[in-house]
Amino acid sequence: MSDAVKGNAIDRLMERASRALSTTDYFEAESLSARALEKARRVNDFDRMARILLPLQEARRQIRDQASDCGVVRVVERPGDVPEPLEPGCYLVQPPMIGLDARTLWQLGLRRRVPLVAMAREPLTRDGRWPIVAVSEVSVRAKVETPAPIERVESRMSKDEFGGPVPVEWFIDAYERLGDAGIASVDAKEPAAWRVDDLLERLSALPFHEKLHQALASAARQAMHEPLPEFPRRRPPVFDPNSF
């Protein structure tokens, strides 16, 4: 398939996404834009990637705002804590559930067209903080203060007995910090095309983080003006001191 044909297929997706945005069908706009972004990366079309990210960011911002405007953060410790039918809002997944469960939850929200943002927290650390995590092909972690003072309980997998409540403001701030950590973890000295891939992985873990979209668009614009790396990428083994 020629580059022109591939480009036309991407443009058709984005025309549909633009129409969906104009009619406030944010889930359709999100789905179409995400598909277009994937297709553009597959053919190294960094120009289209940069342009796609703006409507994708807007669709996801609207979904995130609808979720946070519900004013509810649900603490999910077991599958039975997830309401059926699925309800809008923010969801904090905690042990024994893990980051992959949070990913499954927000993906379910997109499929069912329910405005929902989810992230996971890990066991309380000895310094009294929570590692929060989001996963895709990579794991993104950051340590944050707990929503309220809590005592350490060694017998619990979570190392505490926290059951809520969680202020929406705390949740949104923690999500922002997590995405910021994801951006900071990308090596600015790498070729732009590699940074595009790194940021795509982090955006896949944290799709509702606005600055990740902006960082990815910036890297894509830089990649437009650089030759593609000549040699395959070899990544070092990942060591994460915050994992458990």
Structure report:
The protein is an alpha/beta fold and 244 residues long. It is built from seven helices and five strands; from the N terminus they run αααββαβββααα. Strands 1-2-3-4-5 form a five-stranded mixed beta sheet, sandwiched between helices. The N and C termini lie far apart (46 Å). The mean pLDDT is 94.
Strand order of the largest sheet: 1-2-3-4-5
Q: What is the straight-line distance between the termini?
A: 46 Å
Mean pLDDT score, rounded?
A: 94
How many helices? The count is 7
Q: Could you give a quick summary of the protein structure above?
A:
By secondary structure, the chain is an alpha/beta fold. Helix content is 49%, strand content 12%. It has a 5-stranded mixed β-sheet with strand order 1-2-3-4-5, with helices on both faces.
Fold topology:
Layout: H1 3-22, H2 26-42, H3 46-69, E1 73-76, E2 89-93, H4 99-112, E3 116-121, E4 129-135, E5 139-145, H5 168-184, H6 192-205, H7 210-223
Parallel strand pairs: 1-2, 2-3
Antiparallel strand pairs: 3-4, 4-5
